[in-house]
Amino acid sequence: xxxxxxxxxxxxxxxxxxxxxxxxxxxxxxxxxxxxxxxxxxxxxxxxxxxxxxxxxxxxxxxxxxxxxxxxxxxxxxxxxxxxxxxxxxxxxxxxxxxxxxxxxxxxxxxxxxxxxxxxxxxxxxxxxxxxxxxxxxxxxxxxxxxxxxxxxxxxxxxxxxxxxxxxxxxxxxxxxxxxxxxxxxxxxxxxxxxxxxxxxxxxxxxxxxxxxxxxxxxxxxxxxxxxxxxxxxxxxxxxxxxxxxxxxxxxxxxxxxxxxxxxxxxxxxxxxxxxxxxxxxxxxxxxxxxxxxxxxxxxxxxxxxxxxxxxxxxxxxxxxxxxxxxxxxxxxxxxxxxxxxxxxxxxxxxxxxxxxxxxxxxxxxxxxxxxxxxxxxxxxxxxxxxxxxxxxxxxxxxxxxxxxxxxxxxxxxxxxxxxxxxxxxxxxxxxxxxxxxxxxxxxxxxxxxxxxxxxxxxx
Amino acid sequence: xxxxxxxxxxxxxxxxxxxxxxxxxxxxxxxxxxxxxxxxxxxxxxxxxxxxxxxxxxxxxxxxxxxxxxxxxxxxxxxxxxxxxxxxxxxxxxxxxxxxxxxxxxxxxxxxxxxxxxxxxxxxxxxxxxxxxxxxxxxxxxxxxxxxxxxxxxxxxxxxxxxxxxx
Lengths: 460, 167
Ligand SMILES: [Zn+2]
Description:
Chain A is α+β, with helices and mostly antiparallel strands. Chain A is 40% helix and 24% strand. Chain B has one domain.
C-alpha cells in the first residue's frame, strides 16, 4: 500500500467543500429570507454546477429561493447540486484510495430503474417535514416542528422497503429533539445536519428507493471484522469480508440491522441481531462461511440469508488480510450512496508507530500520519484505544471526514510479551468476558420488561 | 502531512448527543427528555395493568401525574409525587445529572448526583395537563421492539457510528 499517496490533497475536494459549506450555512438561519452572504453562497452553488446537466434547474431553484418562493421541486434541485459536489468528492477520494491500495474496482453497471417502492403519500409527508425544516433553519426549530415528523417516521419504519429513510429520519429527528429549541443551542452541527437533511430529501424523492433485483454469488466467505452503527432507535452490524469466488477474491459486506430503544446500548445490542445472521457467530468463532447462491447487490452488499450459508473451516482475519486483501477486487458504490461519509475501505497496516495522546491515538506510517477514529470505537467489544496504541498491526477501515482517519476493526498487540489479536466485533456471537456477559444479561432483562409492557399496553 | 482534525461544525460524523446509559427498566420502563419536558411512565406497584404518566416542564417547572386511564395520581404533594421522584432518579441514571439539570434549567450544586437534587432545585408545582401525549410516546417507544430486523444494508447509518465509549 502506497500510504504516501494519501498524504497529498485530492484535486477539487477543498473547492467543492467550500461551496458546500456556503450552502450549509444558509440552512442555519433557514431558506425563508436569505441575507446577502447566504444569497452569495446560493449563487456560488449554482455557479459550481454551471457546466453540468443540472445547471438550468439549480440556477432556477437559486433564483426562486432568493425571491422567497421555494417549492419542493426547487429544494430537490438544491439538494441534487450539493449531493453532486459531495458525490464527486467521494469519487475522487475513493479513486485516490484505490490507487494507494492498488485495488481494482468494478464499474457501476448500467441498470434499469427498478421497482418503485410506492407509498408516495409517505414520501410526500417526509418531504413536507423536510421543507418545513429547511425554511425554519436549524436556529428556528422548536419542539412542535420536530414532533411533526413522528407520524411519518413511524409509518416509514413499518414499511420494510422504506426502512432506510425511516431509520435516517428517526436518528436525525432524535438529535433535533434533544437540541430544540434551536435558538438557544450553544453550537450547531452545521455539516452533519445539512448532510442528514440532504440525504433524506434525496431518499424521499419518488423512485429513489426503487428495488433492484439482486444477483447471487457463491464461494468461501472470510470475515475481516465488524463495523457497528447505532443511534437511539437503530443498530446495524456490517461485516466486512473477502469472498473467494471462481473469479478470484472480492471484497463484500454483509449487514444486519434492528430497530431498538435508547437504553439498549453497548454489548447489549448484539442479541437483537444474532438471530438474523449466523455470520455474527462465525465472526466470534473465527470461522469462514460457505455461501451458495447468496443474494448480492451491485454495490457488493450481501443480502444475508442463513438459508444460503453453512459454517466453514477456521479462518483468522489477520491471515485473510495478509493473504487476500492486496488482490481482492472491490465493488462500485451505488450513485445515491456516494458521499465521503460512506468511505470505509478495509486495509491492513503494519510497520507503524502508534502514539497515544489526550484526544486519541496517532499512527505514523512511512509517508503518512493518520489519526485513529476513536469516536467510531465502541464498548460493544474488547478493542480499546489503549490496545490500538500498543499495537503492531491493524485491520481497519480507511475513512474520510475532512481528512483521512483509520477505524480499527482488529489489532495485534503485545500483551505480557505475547502477540494477541483483539477484535472490535469479538462479542458479536456472544461476550467472552464477565463484564460483557453481565451487560448482555442486563439488556436481555430490559427487552423482557419492555415486551411484557408491550403485551399489556400496546396490543389493546 | 498530518491531516488535522476538522472542527466539530465541519464534520459529517460529529457526535451531537451522548448515548443513553443502560438501566433497570422494571419500575420506570420509559423516561425521556423531549418536547421541553422530563417525561415518562412509572409502573404501578399494585396493579400490573396500570402505569402512571408523569412529566415536569422545563419552561415553568410545573408537573403532572396521572394514570394511563387519566385518573389523577393520589400521591401528589408539594414538590412532586413518588412517581415523579422515581422518574427523576431514572433520568439521572439514563442521561447523567448534568444533562437532566441543563434540560430542566435546574440550578443544581456542582456536587449534585441525584434526581432528588434536581427536583429540590426546581421546586416543582402541580398543574394537571394531558397525560395522553406522553403515554403515546411510550407506546411508540414499545413499538420499536415489535419491528422486524433486516439484512438489507442501511447505508445512512454510516453517519451514526456506535461509540461514545472512549475509555
Ligand atoms: Zn404520581
